[in-house]
Amino acid sequence: MNQDPADKQAQHESFRDHIATVDQKGKRIWIYPKKPKGAFYNARTYFSWFLLALFFTGPFIRIGGQPLLLLNFLERKFVILGVAFWPQDFHLFLLAMITFVIFIVLFTAVFGRVFCGWACPQTVFMEMVFRKIEYLIEGDARQQKKLNAMPMNGEKFFKKLLKHVIFFTIAFLIGNWFMMYILGSEKAIQIISEPPSHHLAGFIAVLAFSGVFYFIFSWFREQACVIVCPYGRFQSVLLDKSSIVVSYDFKRGEKRGKISKKKTPPPDQGDCVDCNQCVEVCPTGIDIRNGTQLECVNCTACMDACNAVMDKIGKPRGLIKYASYNAIASGDHRVFTPRVIIYSIILTALITLLTFLLFTRSPLETTILRAPGTLYTVQDSAHISNIYTVEVVNKTFSPLPVHFKLEGMEGQLQLAGSQMVVPKASIAKSALIVTLNPKNLIPGRNNIEIKVLDDKGREVDAVKTSFLAPENIDELKK
Length: 478
Ligand code: SF4
Ligand code: SF4
What we know:
alpha+beta; Immunoglobulin-like; 4-stranded antiparallel sheet; about 45% helix; elongated; binds iron/sulfur cluster
């Protein structure tokens, strides 16, 4: 019976109605991807070794005595590439985040999800660590399916137990390292090495992190990329027809069809032999021949699989390759579309602004406020004083002695204690008495400026604050 062309088209497009890992009843379809082999997989393996080495040595790498990366949300202290950010630097942090998002948008518009396939921690740990261990213990896709289908016996129990013990051990290791990036290596090692009862909260946090990682890598897997990752969800707006992604060359591949030595293929048959190898290796269970899909993490496994098939049948490699839709459909290889040019201009402007703000950032942040609940003290007809609280944040990693100087007005400053030394990467508080002559003042609020100097007399900060004078100050001036 001849199928109606509309039905045929609807059937062909049906993959758009559901995701590959969920069946009609909404039940999870477990993916058993075949072990990939090939040049891209080898390159990804070597690159993953570099990334894993970076992840595990990262907490111990110091730049100018500071960690490579520290994201201490608890103490609101962040160090990126050895540069510390404090809550007072929130505007810089926000600008850095916006710059990063624009970079991601630009990068994705040009190169698609290349980050997901090559550098995302989820893919690196899943495909290069956990999946490899699974292949080692349970065998390739077919043996895994067989093992899961068989009733529980000694062999199955042993393999499953071994796999899950190793999985949890690695998840526990990742959990500990994750904590090092939050608390710093010294503090995390102290928590790890001392009995759990001494650091109950830290111990529970590590167990919770480990549990989450174990859950993700042993069970949740590709679902993290498909239904949770916001970056994945945004692909449809980030990509366009000029983006370079893992693509099936439909012009060359279609019309697909099996080949046989006994039969000459029809003249309109393309290079795709419909062997399904590209689908069998896919860790998200999709068929790349249907076009770019939200689930595709650009892992290149289908490229390797198809290249091996092309080698076997004596056809050129690259039926599945890194290419844009436009390059395949019309030979248009342009990547600098108006969209990309606009993103590049915005990104350049943001990077310039961020660099300028970072280099001109004050090493100190000073706050001087009149002490709550105080007014003024008239000492005599020539001296009126106000009391202030002083808070100085030292953003550097060495102690900073500071002095205060009244700017543009005669008067005296008296600091509680002899000298203020702000400890490294810390906050110091003190009290300051400012005494002024009434002849320089007007009734009520007067604006004054106090300069903050380092021990070499260089100005490191300047603060504007107010000085309160009595309403009848004109009488004192007589
Ligand atoms: S591996 Fe290549 S030849 Fe085989 S089905 Fe996929 S695209 Fe076609
Ligand atoms: S379609 Fe290819 S590149 Fe995309 S996830 Fe599947 S195997 Fe990886």
